[in-house]
Amino acid sequence: MAAAAAVVTPSGLEDEVSRSRGEGAGEMVVERGPGAAYHMFVVMEDLVEKLKLLRYEEDLLRKNNLKPPSRHYFALPTNPGEQFYMFCTLAAWLINKAGRPFEQPQEYDDPNAIISNILSELRSFGRTADFPPSKLKSGYGEHVCYVLDCLAEEALKYIGFTWKRPAYPVEELEEETVAEDDAELTLNKVDEEFVDMNESAKQEDILESTTDAAEWSLEVERVLPQLKVTIRTDNKDWRIHVDQMHQHKSGIESALKETKGFLDRLHNEISRTLEKIGSREKYINNQLEHLVQEYRAAQAQLSEARERYQQGNGGVTERTRILSEVTEELEKVKQEMEEKGSSMTDGAPLVKIKQSLTKLKQETVQMDIRIGVVEHTLLQSKLKEKSNMTRDMHATIIPESAIGSY
């Protein structure tokens, strides 16, 4: 599995960054190796394997209808906007998988606020983020791969995942099969036949031959091709192994004599070079001590400035929200003022008021006339009632006086 390959760690990344910046023993400037530019590809491949272990395809991609990223998605620039959105989505998901509540970012959120929150969560895990937040805005690069890889490691730790040693399959050695041939015999067979012949010779007496020597020679020449014995070497024989060991030993001893001289000369040259480098380093450190002190002071000021920037950047989001609310209220007030200003310059309401006053005056005159008529009618009724009462009083007094005269 590719995830078992070397995983970049914060200390490793800091060492590479410090070596590229010139930090280290004796403040010597050491350039990054030629393979450092390709290290983020390895980190990205490890990140994909860790995401698969976290089941991000089922829990994240299918739920949000996202395409699975390629093995080098965050290592190469393709679409910065899409890559930044994918980075924020993955980071938020990994933070939640690591046991920390984190809201899923939206497309129209402030990028600076999102990056600041992600880096704050990364630092809360004990990880270092000694690089500008603007490095993450592009959505690709070694810093993006580093942040996602750290968050993936924290998520794996939270779920209790541990790496185990790889189990390699046991390879069985196949035994070499030697085809038997009538015309070929192994060394062991020859030894066995020779022993058998010796035993048979001891048991039987030696017989005197009566065969002619010429006929014997002709018979030998005739059957000689058939009596050819080929001894095939067996690779499993310990004698061959011993001979090979002696040959290798002599070769190693001869090569060691030549190589030892070269190594001794090389060792002497390296020792002299190291002594020169050490003396030169001490001389440079003594000559540049004041510059080193200034550099350390500048580094301390830079760290303080970064802390202040992070503290100030944390309140930018809240102030931005307050500014938007104040802007909305200001727009409402401006709209009301425009409506009132347009109504004040318009003469239609004044004309309506004059017409209403004229109508009120007319109604007042009519009301006064009606009031006068009512008062007159009431006065007449009162006078009439009074005259009737007087007449009735006179009518009642006259008969009494007439009765008294009689």
Automatic annotation (TrEMBL):
<keyword id="KW-0175">Coiled coil</keyword>
<dbReference type="GO" id="GO:0005815">
    <property type="term" value="C:microtubule organizing center"/>
</dbReference>
<feature type="coiled-coil region">
    <location>
        <begin position="285"/>
        <end position="343"/>
    </location>
</feature>
<keyword id="KW-0969">Cilium</keyword>
<keyword id="KW-0966">Cell projection</keyword>
<dbReference type="GO" id="GO:0030992">
    <property type="term" value="C:intraciliary transport particle B"/>
</dbReference>
<feature type="region of interest" description="Disordered">
    <location>
        <begin position="1"/>
        <end position="26"/>
    </location>
</feature>
<dbReference type="GO" id="GO:0005794">
    <property type="term" value="C:Golgi apparatus"/>
</dbReference>
<comment type="similarity">
    <text>Belongs to the IFT57 family.</text>
</comment>
<dbReference type="Pfam" id="PF10498">
    <property type="entry name" value="IFT57"/>
</dbReference>
<dbReference type="GO" id="GO:0042073">
    <property type="term" value="P:intraciliary transport"/>
</dbReference>
<dbReference type="InterPro" id="IPR019530">
    <property type="entry name" value="Intra-flagellar_transport_57"/>
</dbReference>
<dbReference type="GO" id="GO:1905515">
    <property type="term" value="P:non-motile cilium assembly"/>
</dbReference>
<protein>
    <recommendedName>
        <fullName>Intraflagellar transport protein 57 homolog</fullName>
    </recommendedName>
</protein>
<dbReference type="GO" id="GO:0005929">
    <property type="term" value="C:cilium"/>
</dbReference>
